[in-house]
Amino acid sequence: MTLIKILLAIFLPPVAAFMQVGLSAHFWINILLTLCFGIPGVIHALWLVLSKKS
Q1: Model confidence over 1-54: pLDDT tens digits?
Q2: Of 20, 24, 30, 28, nearest to 54 (Cα)?
C-alpha cells in the first residue's frame, strides 16, 4: 500500500495526502501547494506518506 501512496504522491499529490491524513489541515495545505506551485505539493505529499504511518 505504501508503494501505491508514493506513486500517488508523485502524480496526484492531493489524493495521496487525503488517503494519508483525511480532511485535515495537511490536506488543505497540500491542495494549496499543488495548485500554486506544483513541485512543493509533491514534496509535501511524499513527506506525509513517508513520515506518518497509519
Answers
A1: 889 999 999 999 999 999 999 999 999 999 999 999 999 999 999 999 999 765
A2: 20
- Asked if 48 contacts 21 with a C-beta cutoff of 8 angstroms, the reply is yes
Query: How many domains does the chain divide into?
Result: 1
Determine the pLDDT at residue 1.
Answer: 84
Asked if 45 and 13 count as a contact pair (C-beta separation under 8 A), the reply is: yes
Nearest to 45 by CA among 8, 9, 19, 21: 9
In terms of Cα–Cα distance, which of 23, 50, 3, 4 is closest to 14? 23
**Cα(first)–Cα(last) distance of the chain, in Å?**
11
Look up the domain containing 47 and give its range: 2-51
